[in-house]
Specification:
By secondary structure, the chain is α+β, with helices and mostly antiparallel strands. It contains 16 helices and 37 strands. α8 packs parallel to α11 and α11 runs parallel beside α13. It is found in: Cytoplasm.
């Protein structure tokens, strides 16, 4: 097909974000707003004096976790330069005044991450992983409804006034008010991005790697396939051009359903948008926002272009694989100075930007060059490698009895009996396992209807297939992946307390009350203190916990403290109906810590299960606001333990809504860079357990859990690296 098209080139780079650039909003002719994993929203203004370069104008601070969707509304009397709306992982929606840089509204109502924003006249509509759409008017929520049974990933408004949503349930839905008038089915994975195609229909981007153009009637007009991974975003221009951003590190430009250009990036392209003049803005995981143009007079100078080309080359080298191995991990040619150990031994070394294979010539005592090693054309569907050899499959096999995990390689072209024989021989395992291994291979390679070759004869029995007389003890979970730290079973508690210190602090507080004539009536008497001392003695005597108890008078004394003492003096244990008081703004660290530990210890007894489930949402909401970003390491550990215990409890009770809330809170905490290793470990175990045994694996994937797992794998702390690998394994 002959398509008239001029290629896009780099115009400029907007640098400032300290982590992934996630979202883009074109603010008319005022500028560009961008969001990031660094928790900021940034506003960039066009500087015509610098050849059309954009410069940073404002940084909006307020979100406590990464920021995603953005929306812009044009200037009004109240907002002379317009306003920006942002939604984040922290479940909050903020409205910002561009002129002043101030936060003018906080919209709170969603239970999980906010994923989409759409302006509907003077109203705002927000979408969330909590499956709801919420309508806001003048800063107040006026409507809420469940729009999908799975996470909502995007929402747009059509020129007709109707809304369209895309969801992890793989569908799009068309909304007239709160009524769904049509469901669009066709994608085979999460619908991640939406856009309006003027005068034509609706564009959708999906995790299935495709982009679809739909008529309002629900008919698929065009399906665009070209990306090799998740497509996160899609946008259109009045010229008919379409742009998409993908996990495959490209932004692709489409015309008439055909990809006319792939713009490579040094990272994942989270978002891509058109400017009015058809220039393209992209947000990349390297934290840089780039603008691409077809106007020759706006193309960046040679210095910028060369620097970008070098950055892109280095990134591609770091990702390039030869024979299933990363190019930058291959040894250099100096490795050929070491003699081989056997004739024909092969070695792959890096020469420039290529991997080159050599074979050891024992007779001539030298390495003979075989040739350049290349991977197949599909860089994302790599065949696994074991001991330098590629296979269609490499399975993990656990034979139990404390033995290490064994690697079982297999190619589909092989006879499964031959593969099983070779493996058992190499691993020095008994042939009584043979049929089980064959069945495992067939089951896990989709060969359920495998028919043995009638001419095949088992070398051990002479029959056409081996049938053991009596199978020994079964292989322990042959097909089950092995995890180091998940799922978590049982509850964690805080079993120690500084009773003498607590008693001393109560005495200090009591002296303060006695000296205040207005509060003297709520102070403790000498007899009250004697009773407290007796209670502390009971608590210290852990060997008699099974037979000791508090009297009603003892309990009444504690209630007096909890109900009547001022908030700064609420130092002892707390129960559910005092959580709001203990987490009041500004929260006192001592109160937070005692409240968290007391609540966490309730998980130890099944007596409190109903209570913990009933108040789950209130508890998590209260603590997430004041604890998720706390710098106090004791509070971090206590909050992480609370989330881990809730994860275990909600998995046991098959509570999907609760699991989603805990997952969201855990992911938000995992994003924190300042939490200590013990807290990070517990929070990662909670995430992995929810994904493995809960029902929120897909939600976790939609919330980019893989990036958290990969970051954890690179940790110097072995436990964190191991649980990061666990999460990555569950995700894949």
């Amino acid at each position: 097909m002959d398509i008239d098209f001029k290629e896009y080139k780099l115009r400029c780079q907007l640098q400032g974000h300290e982590d992934d650039a996630r979202g883009i909003c074109v603010c008319g002719n005022s500028g560009i707003a961008t969001s990031s994993r660094d928790r900021t929203v940034r506003f960039w203004k066009l500087d015509e004096s610098q050849k059309g370069v954009y410069t940073l104008s404002k940084i909006f601070l307020g979100h406590t976790s990464f920021v995603g969707p953005l929306a812009w509304f044009p200037p009004t009397d109240e907002f002379p330069e317009g306003g920006i709306v942002s939604g984040g992982m922290d479940t909050l929606v903020f409205v910002w005044n561009i002129a002043t840089g101030e936060k003018v509204q906080l919209l709170k109502g969603h239970k999980l991450q906010v994923t989409g924003l759409a302006l509907d006249g003077s109203d705002l509509v927000s979408a969330s992983v909590d499956c709801t759409l919420r309508r806001w008017r003048a800063g107040q929520q006026v409507e809420v409804w469940e729009a999908h049974k799975a996470a909502i990933q995007a929402v747009i408004r059509l020129p007709s006034g109707e809304l369209v949503t895309g969801s992890s349930d793989m569908t799009l839905k068309l909304w007239t008010g709160k009524s769904c008038s049509r469901t669009f089915q066709g994608h085979t994975d999460t619908v991640r991005g939406l856009a309006v195609m003027p005068d034509v229909g609706i564009l959708s981007a999906s995790h299935d790697g495709s982009v679809r153009l739909w008529a309002i009637s629900g008919e698929v007009l065009i399906e665009m396939v070209g990306h090799s991974s998740i497509v996160y975003s899609v946008d259109s221009h009045v010229s008919g051009l379409i742009v998409t951003g993908s996990e495959d590190c490209t932004a692709k430009v489409w015309k008439d359903g055909v990809c006319v250009q792939s713009i490579e990036h040094p990272g994942c392209v989270w978002d891509a948008k058109f400017l009015e003049n058809a220039d393209i803005v992209t947000a990349c995981s390297d934290g840089v926002v780039r603008i691409w143009t077809i106007a020759d007079d706006k193309v960046a100078g040679a210095t910028v272009l060369n620097a970008f080309a070098s950055q892109l080359s280095q990134y591609k080298i770091s990702r390039k694989r030869v024979g299933g191995l990363k190019l930058d991990e291959l040894p250099g040619v100096e490795a050929l100075k070491v003699p081989g150990t056997s004739d024909g031994q092969t070695k792959v070394v890096r020469e420039g930007d290529n991997g080159v294979a050599y074979a050891w010539n024992m007779k001539e005592v030298k390495w003979d060059k075989i040739g350049e090693v290349v991977d197949g054309p599909n860089d994302d569907l790599k065949r696994p490698v074991l001991n330098g050899t590629q296979y269609d499959y490499v399975f993990d096999v656990d034979i139990g009895d404390g033995e290490p995990i064994r690697k079982l390689p297999y190619n589909r072209s092989e006879n499964p009996y031959d593969a099983a024989d070779r493996w058992l021989l190499n691993e020095n395992l008994p042939f009584s396992y043979r049929q089980q291994i064959v069945e495992f291979i067939l089951q896990n390679t989709g060969q359920n209807h495998f028919t043995p070759d009638p001419l095949y004869r088992d070398p051990y029995t002479g029959s056409s297939a081996y049938v053991p007389a009596a199978l020994p003890r079964q292989l322990s979970e042959v097909s089950k992946p092995s995890y180091k730290h998940i799922p978590k079973k049982g509850m964690l508690t805080f079993d120690t307390a500084q009773f003498d210190g607590i008693l001393k602090k109560i005495s200090e507080f009591n002296s303060t009350l006695i000296s205040d004539s207005e509060q003297r009536h709520i102070s403790l008497s000498e007899s009250d203190f004697s009773r407290l001392n007796a209670m502390v003695k009971i608590l210290k005597d852990t060997s008699h916990y099974h037979s000791s108890r508090f009297s009603d008078i003892d309990t009444g004394l504690l209630w007096k403290l909890l109900k009547t003492w001022p908030v700064p003096m609420l130092f002892p244990d707390v129960i559910i109906n005092l959580i709001r008081k203990m987490t009041a703004n500004p929260p006192l660290p001592a109160n937070q810590l005692i409240a968290l530990r007391a609540l966490t210890n309730l998980f130890k007894s099944s007596f409190y299960t109903e209570l913990l489930l009933k108040y789950r949402s209130e508890v998590l909401d209260a603590f997430s606001i004041c604890c998720s970003s706390s710098s106090n390491k004791n509070i971090q550990l206590s909050y992480a333990t609370l989330l881990l215990n809730y994860a275990v409890l909600l998995i046991e009770n098959k509570d999907e809504e609760g699991q989603s809330q805990v997952l969201s809170a855990a992911l938000e905490m995992a994003e924190e860079e300042t939490i200590d290793s013990d807290s990070r470990f517990r929070i990662l175990v909670a995430i992995g357990s929810l994904m493995l045994e809960g029902v929120v694996r897909r939600v976790a994937l939609d919330l980019d859990v893989l990036s958290i797992a990969i970051a954890a794998k690179s940790s110097r702390d072995p436990k964190i690296a191991e649980v990061g690998a666990d999460i990555e394994l569950v995700a894949k």
